[in-house]
Specification:
Layout (H helix, E strand, L loop, with lengths): L2 H29 L5 H14 L9 H32 L8 H19 L3 H11 L5 H8 L3 H21 L11
Helix pairs in contact: 1-2, 1-3, 2-3, 4-7, 5-6, 5-7, 6-7
């Protein structure tokens, strides 16, 4: 561990001690009495700890709020994906009702794919989610993220290749995927 890593850990530890209760309170006001508030607050500091230490943080509460809100939105998106897939399962007239084991396998596969997507760089992951979850077009994604349409295309190719690799390595029910 380098001196920079140690000082970054010490800085994040000090931020945690100084701002964790405030962040929990802020999230309680934002989300209500949710049981996951403390988890989101803790994950916020984990993300900060895992980020490179480039410059001193001038506005820690603004940064913590931004990270926490991103985590909240990602959680909502995950739940929306799960809800859409469960809705699709309920509306499939010709397909037999999946067993609890099949539902568990589908859920496990979705969580595995989500973990795989988490390993992608932020803009690649955001591009994929904006396309597949929010249904935005490439020009809309480019405008949203401030990148070129060519970059959107490259990022989508990269994320779809990851999904294809994930699908090849795991049992995946093709009736649950959205067409490109």
């Amino acid at each position: 561990m380098s001196g920079t890593d140690l000082s970054h850990r010490i800085d994040v530890g000090a931020l945690f001690r100084a701002h964790y209760p405030w962040l929990c309170n802020h999230l309680h006001q934002y989300l209500g009495a949710s049981a996951g508030v403390e988890d989101i607050a803790a994950e916020t500091f984990v993300q900060l700890l895992e980020s490179p230490s480039l410059t001193p943080i001038r506005e820690p509460r603004a940064l913590l709020t931004t990270i926490a809100r991103r985590l909240v939105f990602e959680g909502w998106r995950r739940r929306n994906v799960e809800r859409r897939h469960l809705d699709q399962l309920q509306h499939l007239d010709q397909a037999p009702t999946p067993s609890p084991e099949e539902l568990a396998q589908i859920n496990q596969t979705l969580h595995g794919l989500d973990r795989s997507l988490e390993r992608l760089p932020s803009k690649v992951r955001k591009t994929f989610l904006l396309s597949r979850i929010d249904g935005l077009t490439y020009p809309q994604i480019a405008a949203e993220l401030g990148i070129s349409q060519r970059s959107v295309s490259v990022y989508m190719t990269r994320s779809q290749a990851l999904c294809a690799r994930h699908s090849a390595n795991h049992s995946w029910n093709p009736t649950l995927t959205r067409s490109a």
